[in-house]
Amino acid sequence: MNIGDLLDRNAIALRVSAANKRQALAVIAEIAARTFGLEAGDVLDALTSREHAGSTGVGHGVAAPHARLGGLTRMRGVFVRLDQPVAFDAVDDQPVDLIFALFAPKDAPDVEHLRALARVSRALRQADLRRQLRLARSADALHALLVQDPVQASRPSAA
């Protein structure tokens, strides 16, 4: 599974304004509802419930909220870049501006959910990718950065 399997171009938003973590999660819920045909309230409830169990702020300005939802047939993702970072109770106490939310079907095997989380976390641990995501000017540019194979992207091109 790669990020391209999870993330549709229309599930990406940049220049998002949110005053706090709850507002950021509400924006994600709206995008997920619109893109995946879900109820925004159900998505927000699932994300909020997961955050109560422990913050999904993974450090370096990144969060990876996730939830299981009815109505999905496969793993899906939403990526949001905030205009201004918000407090997210992250492990490094730094505010978050890059959020990659993952949504699994209610009955998806745990291993599938964990593999997707690991893939996203591995990609967003790369300082250069985070820098490029913060500089990208369009949703298409963000999508291209997120779906590139990190191994291929780090190799020098043959001349």
List the helices and strands and how they pair.
Layout (H helix, E strand, L loop, with lengths): L2 H4 E10 L4 H16 L3 H14 L3 E3 L2 E2 L2 E4 L6 E11 L9 E10 L4 H15 L2 H9 L3 H9 L2 H5 L5
Parallel strand pairs: 1-5, 3-6, 4-6
Antiparallel strand pairs: 2-3, 5-6
Helix pairs in contact: 2-3
Features:
159 residues; alpha/beta; disordered C terminus; Mannitol-specific EII, Chain A; globular; single chain; 6-stranded mixed β-sheet
Computed structural class: alpha/beta
The CATH topology:
Mannitol-specific EII, Chain A
CATH class, named: Alpha Beta
- The first-to-last residue Cα distance is 30 Å
**Major β-sheet profile:** 6 strands, mixed
Shape: globular
User: Into how many domains do the coordinates divide?
Assistant: 1
Question: How many β-strand stretches?
Answer: 6
Mean pLDDT: 90
Sequence stretches where pLDDT stays below 50 over 5 or more residues: 151-159
Strand content: 25-35%
Classify the helix fraction into a percent range.
40-55%
Question: How would you sum up this structure, described in words?
Answer:
The chain has a single domain (3-149), classed as Mannitol-specific EII, Chain A (3-Layer(aba) Sandwich), CATH 3.40.930. Helices cover 45% and strands 25% of the residues. It contains seven helices and six strands. Strands 1, 2, 3, 4, 5 and 6 form a six-stranded mixed sheet that branches. α2 crosses α3. The protein is globular.
